[in-house]
Amino acid sequence: MSSGNAGIYHEMIVDYSRNPLNYGKMDSPDATHHDSNPLCGDSIEVHLRLDGERISDIKFDGKGCAICMACSSVLTEAAKGKTVHEARLIGKDDVLAELGLENLQAVRIKCALLSLKVLKYALYSHLAKCGGDGDADGLKEEAAGLY
Ligand SMILES: [Zn+2]
Question: I need a labelling partner for 45 at 20 to 30 A (CA). Which of 2, 9, 26, 124 fits?
Fold first, then answer.
């Protein structure tokens, strides 16, 4: 990563934090989950609308610092339109790389990955409810192990 990109990424993060994508509530979502980072004050809820196994809509709401809001925007954009199985493959590097945050300090990693953790728990609750074929296996552990 060349340092020349730092300004662009910083601008993207400020932009997303002011005008977050997919921000808002959803009426009777098919899956939802909430979690927070007490240290920073980030508190994020993710709502999923499922059309069969496809995420036809995704929204997040709550409050967060600039990094948290930017990463939630990027993550929800990435997950929208994917199947549950595709969405569960979204990893932390996918979110971090999108905003040039690969070298984020450990203390801020929670800000960046909170929404990914929440998404994985929401997918888990959906799979655990509708599954029974072992699809949810490991997803909870994956979410818990993110940071
Ligand atoms: Zn934060």
Answer: 9
A 10 A CB-CB count for 90 gives 18
Report the domain count for the chain. 1
Cα of 9 vs centre of ligand 1, distance in Å, is: 17
Span from the CA of 96 to the centroid of ligand 1 (angstroms) = 14
What's the CATH code of the domain at 138?
A: 3.90.1010.10
Q: What is the extent of the structural domain holding 125? A: 3-144
pLDDT digits (tens, 9 = 90+) for 26-84: 999 999 999 999 999 999 999 999 999 999 999 999 999 999 999 999 999 999 999 99
Going from the Cα of 85 to the center of ligand 1, the distance in angstroms, rounded, reads 28
pTM check: above 0.70: yes
Give tens-digit pLDDT for 76-131.
999 999 999 999 999 999 999 999 999 999 889 999 999 999 999 999 999 888 76
Helices (H), the chain: 6-18, 66-79, 84-87, 92-98, 106-130, 139-144
Between the CA of 147 and the centroid of ligand 1 the distance, in Å, is: 13
